[in-house]
C-alpha cells in the first residue's frame, strides 16, 4: 500500500472520503479516513472510516447492516481527497434516506428530494445492486438466489412469462395490472442482465445510440 504515503492528510491525519454508488453514480455520503481505515478498507473490501466525534475507526454498517462493499478507490489530482465506488446495502444515511444528500438548493431554499429506492430511474440501479449482492452473498429463501440456482433457462422463462402478463394486462386495459406486471418484467430483466455481465448503463448507452 505504498500509495498511502503519497496522500495528503490534514493536520489531524485525516482525509475526506466520498462514497458513491458504483452503478448509479449517486453520491451517498461524506466521511473521513485515516491511514489505518484506508488499510482496513482495502484488506476487508468494506468501507471503514474514522469518526471525528468518537475518535475511533468504524466500519460502515457494522451495527446497522448497511455495509458498503468497495468496488474501486480513487484519489483526486491533489491527493487530498478519496472517492469510494461502493455497492450499498440498505441506506447510507442514518436518517434512513438512501443518500445523505437528500436536500437540494432551490430558489434559495432547501427542499428534500427522493434518493435511492425513492428516486424514479434510480430504482433500476438499486434493484440491480441487490441482485448483485445476492449473488455474492446468498440469502436463505431468496427468490433471486433461486433463479441463479436454476440457471439461465429458468430466468428466460420468467422473462417470457412476465412479458406475456404485460401483454394480457395491456389488452385488458387494466392500468394497475400493467404497472404491476411491468415491474415484475423489469426485475427479471435485471436478473438476466446480471447473469450476462451487463448493467442498465449498457442498455441506456444502446438506447442513446438509437436516439435522434
Concise account of the structure shown:
With 212 residues, the protein is of the alpha+beta class. The protein is built from six helices and eight strands. It has helices at 35-44, 122-136, 143-150, 152-171, 175-196, 200-210, and strands at residues 15-21, 27-33, 48-51, 56-59, 68-75, 82-88, 103-106, 109-112.
Polypeptide structure, described:
By secondary structure, this protein is an alpha+beta fold. Helices cover about 40% and strands about 20% of the residues. It is built from 6 helices and 8 strands. It has helices at about 35-45, 120-135, 145-150, 150-170, 175-195, 200-210, and strands at about 15-20, 25-35, 50, 55-60, 70-75, 80-90, 105, 110. Strands 2-1-6-5 form a 4-stranded mixed beta sheet, covered by helices on one side. A two-stranded antiparallel sheet has the order 3-4. The chain has a two-stranded antiparallel ribbon with strand order 7-8. Strand 1 and strand 2 (about 25-35) form a beta hairpin. Helix 2 packs across helix 5 (about 175-195) and helix 4 packs antiparallel against helix 5. The longest helix has 22 residues, at about 175-195. The chain is elongated, with a radius of gyration of 20 Å.
Write out key terms for the chains shown:
6 helices, 4-stranded mixed sheet, 212 residues, alpha+beta, single chain
**What number is the mean pLDDT?**
93
**Biggest sheet descriptor:** 4 strands, mixed
Number of helices: 6
Which parts are unreliable, with pLDDT below 50 for 5 consecutive residues or more? Answer: none
Strand order in the sheet with the most strands: 2-1-6-5
Q: Give the ordered list of helices and strands.
A: EEHEEEEEEHHHHH
Radius of gyration: 20 Å
What's the N-to-C terminus distance?
47 Å
- Share in β-strands: 15-25%
What is the share of helical residues? 40-55%
Shape: elongated
Let me know the number of strands.
8
The computed structural class is alpha+beta
Amino acid at each position: 500500500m505504498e500509495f498511502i504515503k503519497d496522500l495528503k492528510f490534514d493536520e489531524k491525519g485525516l482525509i475526506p472520503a466520498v462514497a458513491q454508488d458504483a452503478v448509479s453514480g449517486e453520491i451517498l455520503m461524506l466521511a473521513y479516513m485515516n491511514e489505518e481505515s484506508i488499510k482496513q478498507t482495502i484488506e476487508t473490501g468494506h468501507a471503514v472510516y474514522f469518526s471525528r466525534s468518537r475518535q475511533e475507526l468504524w466500519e460502515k454498517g457494522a451495527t446497522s447492516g448497511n455495509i458498503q462493499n468497495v468496488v474501486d478507490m480513487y484519489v483526486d489530482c491533489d491527493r487530498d481527497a478519496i472517492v469510494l465506488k461502493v455497492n450499498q446495502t440498505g441506506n447510507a444515511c442514518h436518517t434512513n434516506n438512501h443518500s445523505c444528500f437528500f436536500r437540494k438548493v432551490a430558489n434559495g431554499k432547501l427542499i428534500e428530494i427522493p434518493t435511492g429506492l425513492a428516486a424514479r430511474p434510480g430504482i433500476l440501479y438499486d434493484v440491480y445492486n441487490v441482485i448483485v449482492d445476492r449473488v455474492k452473498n446468498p440469502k436463505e429463501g431468496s427468490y433471486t438466489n433461486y433463479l441463479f440456482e436454476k440457471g439461465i433457462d429458468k430466468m428466460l422463462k420468467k422473462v417470457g412469462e412476465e412479458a406475456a402478463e404485460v401483454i394480457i394486462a395491456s389488452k385488458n386495459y387494466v392500468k394497475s395490472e400493467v404497472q404491476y406486471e411491468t415491474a415484475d418484467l423489469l426485475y427479471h430483466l435485471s436478473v438476466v442482465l446480471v447473469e450476462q455481465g451487463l448493467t442498465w448503463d449498457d442498455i441506456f448507452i444502446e438506447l442513446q445510440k438509437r436516439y435522434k
